[in-house]
Amino acid sequence: MNPTTKMIRLLRVAVLGVCSCVAIAPLVSHHAFAAKAAETQQVSAKVGKPLKKAREFMDAKQWKEALAKTKEVAAMPGKNPAEEAIVNEMLAYCMMNLKDYAGAVGVYETMLTAGQFKEEEIPKRLLTMSQIYFALKNYPKSIQYGERYLKEAGADLEVLRQVSQAYYLQNDFAHAGEYVQRLIDAAKKQGKPVEEDWLKLLMSTQHKQNKKVEVVATLERLLATYPNDQYWSDMFTYLLQGSSFSDGENIIYLRLVQQANLLQANEYVELAELSLAITNPGEAKAVLEEGFTKGVLGKDESKDRDLKLLAMARNQAAEDLTLLPSIEKEAAAKPTGEALVKVGDAYLGHGKYENAIPAFTNGLAKGGVKNKDEASINLGISYLRLNKSAEAIKAFNSVPTSSKLALMSRLWVIQAGKSQ
């Protein structure tokens, strides 16, 4: 891959550190409390009378007046624990309706510390407190109560997501990644789909920690389940970073970019020049003609160069086609499959996939092929061009996981899967 192509590809990549899924507004639940508490529980006349007046204000949705009257009761000394709990409930409820979430959650914390919640109510209250603190951007507190809720109530997908986002917004990417992975695992266990935003958040935490292998693995998952051009562009960027492709590997890479319909003008030319260099003029001709048809090539100052290159490719391709049958016979007589594999690649370049497949298959069966994994992928490409996805996937999957081309083969599997 030449430096210009690599730079252009790098400029195309999206910034993985920005993930839209972290900017959410949590739902803040207005817990229904016992509105008639002052009437149904044992309270003193001294406390009960003003509380009744506060409740009348609440029934009329006069929240400021209700809050003021409740605060009067809160300031009274000598209240018993039940009265303290009732007053705090009313204070929090008024504050919630006045959108004073900071005040309300402060009251809830007081009640939690004082043991004023019923045992069965605690998880629900913890959830509300975590959500309110998230809305207030107090992420440490949101995490504190979110984690406690998860311990007491079990895996809740929404809370797991919220906690992971809270950690992310604190730049604690290690814990954010841990929780989003827990979220994904919990969803799978519950038989629910893994959402795209979760994978994007996971990938962003990995990117922030410079975990390239993990980023690529998550990007693969995104491509397999939520494919789009941006994810392919990002993947191609990662493929190029620190790469040292041979000409044959580079051609397979550029064919993949072409399959994803993301080939740029300079890459059309690069693929053509590489194909000519390895005596595969059929590929050069085909790719240049595609570039001209799409209006990518033959423009401005590069017009003359592109036209000359196309003329050269056409002349060489015509000559190659006349020679291929005799070359194939000679290759079939050789003791190893190396020559037959090269014939298969030539047929692939010319678009003669029905001829390419037996050449690749027989060549691989003979053995002695130097670049067996390249040949397997090119066999798969031949099948894919004939819309034989199952056979293509089988060929791509024959590349071992230890191969330098393992990732490339898996990406070809994803492309083949789109055709099924």
UniProtKB/TrEMBL annotation:
- From the record, give the transmembrane residue ranges: none
What InterPro entries does this protein's entry cite? CellSynth/LPSAsmb/PSIAsmb, TPR-like_helical_dom_sf
Keyword terms of this UniProt record: Repeat, Signal, TPR repeat
- Where in the sequence is the signal peptide annotated? 1-25
Q: Name one Pfam family in it.
A: TPR_16
- Protein name, please? Tetratricopeptide (TPR) repeat protein
Which organism does this sequence originate in? Cellvibrio fibrivorans
